[in-house]
Write a structure and sequence with these properties.
Blueprint lengths: L22 H9 L4 H5 L11 H5 L1 E8 L2 E9 L10 E6 L10 H9 L3 E5 L15 H16 L19 E7 L1 H14 L5 E7 L14 H12 L2 H11 L7 H4 L9 H16 L2 H9 L6 H11 L5 E6 L10 H7 L5 E7 L6 H4 L1 H17 L1
Parallel strand pairs: 3-4, 3-5, 5-6, 6-7, 7-8
Antiparallel strand pairs: 1-2, 2-4
Helix pairs in contact: 1-10, 4-15, 5-6, 7-11
Length: 375
């Protein structure tokens, strides 16, 4: 499905900074800064990029794995009164991302009085760091976090023991970029037998097989390991050659396609820029070293085993250089046609689709995901 035109969104996803300043004031201050990196790092600027909606739903959880422990930042509405459904929308960010990037979708789900849970991955946002980042360990952490968060939370009672695995909740897994792989691993590794996943939503998924990150590509692995041990090598490039360009840096140009004078769009770009400069090079490389490709043959077998039908929705972005839409052809061929319900291509949109075209993402997410859960 190729989206040609969006109708007017039912909600204006207006950001409400905790600083109390207007978006115009914040944008004007950032645009007038002689050195944007120095300006955006000032402690006094932090509240400009912390939103009331996120703050009102923020909670930290201590998660214990057999070989490591973490303090994970989450955003959820599970304690809110008036949540009408036992379905929980779980949002998993990608490489160098954080839960704020889902903010328009979180507000959309909340406005429909559905439950949601988003998290910062270890080492990103405000979650604690690890010494290394094996992808399946990250997946295990998400699974334990889900169990911990949903334990004891009110849910619709069911006689089905499988549903009681999460206290009667069902899940809609939403991944962005690398988070798509995390969501697929989570489903395959931990959730198949529980039969609690109703829908998988993949937002701009990466290339299905990234050969360079395979463990048998020893040269690539050694190069990544070298940078992981000497992250200042990547810091030099990021600090001296890329981030000094401000909104023309690669982390903005490749993530946004929209170019106009809309204040909210500019604000989101500065917000993204602040997140970019806060991410550590060692953490980014650590995730690449720990990368684990999805075995799509095995994944399809799991889908067939559980009888999960027509419950996978993929969003691609027409102008995405990070995950080009041509990569989606493999997903169309590899995933069982009975399971892949729809592939949606958003026009004039790049990789950070929830920030670049939030109105279009929300409209289609409402129609293709939320309304489908309601039916």
């Amino acid at each position: 499905m190729y989206v040609q035109k969006s109708s007017e969104a039912s909600e204006s996803w207006t950001c409400e900074p905790l600083s109390g300043r207007t978006l115009c004031e914040i944008v004007q201050g950032a645009e007038s800064a002689a050195d944007l990196v120095t300006y955006i790092r000032k402690p006094g600027i932090n509240l400009d990029f912390k939103l009331r909606f996120i703050a009102d739903h923020e909670e930290f959880f201590k998660v214990q794995l057999p070989d490591r422990k973490s303090r994970i930042r989450t955003c959820h509405n599970l304690n809110d009164k008036g949540i009408r459904s036992d379905t929980v929308f779980v949002f998993v960010p990608g490489l160098a991302g954080n839960l704020e990037q889902f903010e328009p979708l979180l507000k959309l789900v909340d406005s429909d009085r559905k439950a949601f849970l988003a998290l910062d991955l270890p080492g990103f946002g405000d979650s604690s760091e690890w010494s290394d980042y094996p992808m399946l360990k990250v997946v295990e952490l998400i699974f334990i976090l889900l169990c911990d968060v949903l334990k004891g939370r009110p849910a619709v009672l069911s006689k089905d023991d499988n549903l009681n695995f999460f206290n009667g909740h069902k899940l809609v897994l939403v991944g962005h970029s690398m988070g798509c792989f995390l969501a697929c691993h989570l489903y395959e590794q931990h959730l198949v037998d529980a039969k609690v996943v109703k829908t998988l939503v993949l937002l701009t998924p990466p290339k299905a097989h990234i050969e360079q990150l395979s463990k048998d590509k020893r040269i690539y692995q050694w190069v990544l390991y070298g940078v992981f041990k000497m992250p200042w090598l990547l810091d030099i490039y990021r600090n001296k050659f890329d981030q000094v360009k401000g909104l023309q840096s690669s982390g903005i140009k490749q993530y946004f396609y929209q170019e106009n004078d809309d204040v909210t769009l500019k604000y989101r770009k500065f917000w993204q820029f602040k997140n970019n400069i806060n991410n550590k090079s060692k953490t980014i490389i650590g995730y690449l070293l720990g990368w684990q490709n999805v075995d799509w043959v095995k994944f399809n077998e799991k889908l067939a085993h559980t009888g999960m039908k027509q419950n996978i929705v993929i969003f691609g972005a027409e102008k995405d250089p990070i995950a080009p839409i041509k990569n989606l052809e493999y997903y169309k061929e590899a995933i069982d046609k009975d399971c892949l319900r729809k592939v949606i291509i958003l026009p004039d949109c790049s990789h950070n689709l929830c920030f670049d075209r939030p109105e279009l993402v929300c409209e289609n997410f409402q129609q293709e995901v939320i309304d489908n859960v309601n039916s």
